[in-house]
Design goal:
mainly alpha; 6 helices; 2 strands
Length: about 160
């Protein structure tokens, strides 16, 4: 038998019988004090020296069952957004009807135009069922803003006011 064959045979035997390093084991591993701490550990199969590894008793599920399906959550969020828009429309209509409402530049200023544009947008979405993008373009154009740029800005105005 040549040296190469002998080394290959020896290495394959070591790989099969390898069960861990001696430095991995602690000397007090088998003390009764630590046995209560290591109840969830179990010995690795085929281990001649009792090398233990911390693995859970029951493997964790990769996917968990949702309490509510994604479609239902999406539908509920959509309904919640529509309710918020209804409340906002009512609030802005009430604001515009009040005689106490004073805009910075008067009733024909930029602030008043923005408020009326937001009201038109909400009315189109809530009462007519238009999509938000199409409603914003239409509302912006009807209040003498640019259709595309004004519609884009309209969706940003409520957060800035």
């Amino acid at each position: 038998m040549s040296d190469v064959e002998r080394n290959a045979h020896t290495h394959s035997a070591l790989a099969v019988n390898f069960s861990g390093y001696l430095s991995d084991e602690s000397k007090d591993h088998f003390n009764s004090d630590t046995d209560s701490e290591h109840k969830d550990e179990y010995r690795v199969a085929g281990s001649s020296r009792g090398v233990s590894s911390r693995l859970p008793a029951v493997p964790l599920l990769k996917r968990h069952k949702l309490k509510m399906s994604f479609c239902m959550e999406w539908k509920n969020a959509k309904e919640r957004h529509m309710d918020e828009r209804c409340v906002a429309l009512e609030a802005i209509e009430k604001l515009l009807k009040l005689k106490k409402t004073n805009f910075v530049s008067g009733p024909d200023g930029l602030q008043a135009k923005r408020t009326c544009t937001i009201q038109s947008h909400l009315a189109l979405v809530v009462k007519r069922g238009h999509s938000s993008i199409e409603a914003s373009k239409c509302a912006a154009e009807s209040h003498r803003f640019a259709a595309v740029w004004g519609g884009h800005q309209l969706r940003l105005w409520p957060s800035s006011q």
